[in-house]
Fold CapA family protein.
Amino acid sequence: MKKKRCLAWTLMVALLLSGCQRSVQPKQEPIEEEVVEADQKVRFLAVGDNLIHGLIYASGAQPDGTYQFDSMYARTADTIAAADIAYINQETICGGTELGLQSYPTFNSPYEILDAVANAGFDWLSTSSNHSMDVGEQGIRNQLAHIETLGLTQTGTHGDESDAQTYRVMNKNGLRIGLLSYTYGLNGFVLPQGKEYLVDLIDEEKIQSDMEAIQAISDVQIVSMHWGEEYQFVPNEEQQQLAQLLSDLGADVIIGTHPHVLQPADILTGEAGNETLVWYSLGNFVSAQDVNDRMLGGMAQWTLVYHPQDASVSFEEVSFTPTVMYFDGTGSDVQVYPLSEYSDELGATHYIQGQDMSKQYFIDRAEEIMNDSVELIY
């Protein structure tokens, strides 16, 4: 019996020791899974020139001396407001009635134009154009002050040197979006000596410096360019050269304005292999010009996709919705129509007569001018 108990005890001890030895084996470190950051997407919308002629501000006049323009943008407001960021080029200065309202060739519009722009859902105004100095420095200061009360982001004009060195960066959906604006000139007006900061002019050295500075504080960069030749349906050599320069500097999107008619879109490739979406001209969004092609504008839309793994950008759902500016013979009914809502009946009552104002004309012109890089939505 003693021998059996000793044998059993020996076996038990051996098993216990064996278990202890297993428990002190080095643990394997868990395999770390690679964390892949999700792509970040922002939906953009952009329209062209907000060109406020006398007929337009007269149409918004109220009996009490104020103005109301919300109805002018009403048919496009839902589409505008649905974008994460919506852009408009404020072609003509809104310096307020105290400076005297003016129309072509030197403009000044009431503040209520800006109110209507905000109410329509726009977030970003470019304010550098050839009309920025039409009523002098005070016009710029008045407009800047009113834009600030509305909480909108503006680029292209500045009240002082410090503001000119403060770059605009909008934060949306976790993405930092750097914004810049430039104009080719000021219709012969000269910026006051020592106040060159008032308007951002196209200058290649300045553009390069600004791009380097804003890239340090933003993930993507969008540049508004007031450029080109009026009433020309294709970009000129200077536009193409500047667009390629911006692409080489890393700009992700370029929004072109000034020609007052549509020009095609394109995708450029920069020196680093990056892609740049270019809208060479979005035409007039609002105006009372008297030529049918200048009534054709539109809403450019695209989804910018930022890939944080390599800081690259791509584009989805790039489209263009044509619009037609309508004002009747009395100048009392003034509205921007999506082309899908425009009709031949409206064309027959348009202020512009003796030119083709049919719906089919505008469809054909949009298809002729724009190219296959964007989907046209009617």
Notes: The chain has one domain: 43-376.
